[in-house]
Amino acid sequence: MGLVDDLINGDRKAAAKLITIIENDTNKAREIIPLIYPCTGNAHVIGVTGPPGAGKSALIEKLTGELRRKDKTVGIIAVDPTSPFTGGALLGDRIRMQELSMDKGVFIRSMGTRGNLGGLARATNDVIRILDAFGRDVIIIETVGAGQADVDIMHAVHTSVIVMVPGMGDDIQAIKAGILEIGDIFVVNKADKNGVDRTVMELEMMLDISDRFTKGESTVGARPKMDKGWRPPVIKTIATSGVGVPDLQGKIEEHMEYMRRTNILQMQEKKRIENELMAIIRNRMTEHTMERIKDGEYDELVQKVVTHELDSYSAADEILRSCH
Amino acid sequence: MGLVDDLINGDRKAAAKLITIIENDTNKAREIIPLIYPCTGNAHVIGVTGPPGAGKSALIEKLTGELRRKDKTVGIIAVDPTSPFTGGALLGDRIRMQELSMDKGVFIRSMGTRGNLGGLARATNDVIRILDAFGRDVIIIETVGAGQADVDIMHAVHTSVIVMVPGMGDDIQAIKAGILEIGDIFVVNKADKNGVDRTVMELEMMLDISDRFTKGESTVGARPKMDKGWRPPVIKTIATSGVGVPDLQGKIEEHMEYMRRTNILQMQEKKRIENELMAIIRNRMTEHTMERIKDGEYDELVQKVVTHELDSYSAADEILRSCH
User: Fold this and answer.
1) Average pLDDT, chain B
2) Model's pTM, two decimal places?
3) B316 in contact with A at a CB cutoff of 8 Å?
4) What are the phi and psi torsion angles at A140 (to 5°)?
């Protein structure tokens, strides 16, 4: 595949094409990733998440400017796991970001779901690899909302940045319950708005409490967490004017240094790979089984469960039996 | 198993014991569910979800009272997919609900996650089956928050009720993006608070828009949605005093009648069973594979991926090859 050579030599079009290929047919990843994998492992992957309207895109724009001033190349993957509803808003952000894409040192790509959240996390992983092999120093993943897809994607990054806004009130509880455990750095954006200090204080408090609760092994997936000596900082920013962004960039770098210094980076990488392996194996075996099932037989079994002649566990047994 | 006979004869202790058995060891479900499955399929399963503090527990309490006045027996499963953070609040709610449990016609049970969201949805499914075989007319599942686990659980119910509160502001967008597609009935609780009409109006508007966007097949899992003639109603309630609860109960019944009248109930049941079958098969095959892998070999392959000697796809190939 000439495309892969072009990619590794830094050809933008090759990068775009390979991403499209993988997006359209996840099976192609099986052919492409093995070829590029030896050239990966150099990028610092940063995840940025938070509720819609928190100003993530503006923040990423300014952060990218900061990284470019330090001569780092940047890849941005904007992931939208929420179906048609937020389409409009995101599109606006994308257009605003296109100013950045005039710069050869910045590569921007959007990704949608097509209804399969699990698949999105996997495809995002593959796109990270492509941008890594493409030679990007920093890869920023932007995701919307606080769903499971975000959590899955956040497991694939080295440094996760959670963006909040002042005055989220009661709902901060709902958002933070799941997200506190996966945040390495917290940003309270729109720091010129009322209530910023209260939101910062609430966050600091919840982080203190969570420190107490998350002693020992983290229960949530791949990331060894706060108990290991990294207390997530809370940073105030005003993304539109850039206030606080150099501070954020500094903390992101500090976090990576911390991860390298302790061996958390390697532990995390290992856990991430184990999760990824399991996901690949699980998918491949399911495909394999479904291929081997005669359609008629499968439908017949489903029908029997619908009519309560058979339960799902016994039906699964029959399917598995007929495959081996 | 005498327990199963006792359950089917309406023995409370047998129900509680069987649930505990399945909670502690999901593999036991394989033995228990086949025995009770022929006696299931009679309950109306209702899901209630929404952000913490929306008053879901109080609403369920009053709804249960309403159902009891109509001589229906009720099972309540309170699912808490968010780890330690919300523990306190939920406990309070549970204690408040215990007044209900003095009534023999009400059976209440809480379930936690233990770190495995996918497993929780499956276990909830099994517990629904147990309460169904136990003879409950109505089974109410309460879940917290708006994560993927909630969405998965909501796919297992016949009628899903989404509880909101006035003045959720910008965040209503975040919550609704994922939840609009799975709600059959929307409740704006705390209707004595400021901003209730605005929240109702926003919801109605978003439902109108989503109607336009979701023509054709729903992209989200098991539930054939609004395009089929059911426009989710938005109901105002004050759970603490019971205002609006009879209206809610009426709409819930209306929804079930609608599902029965059209053949959506059966279509949904079929899709749900297909999803469940796939989940069971996937889990069983993964277990099967992991058992067959010699630990040393697996660790060695992971290590090779960590050091970039091998990529995940090729490692998965090797694992699968050595299993067949």
Assistant:
1) 80
2) 0.67
3) yes
4) -110, 125
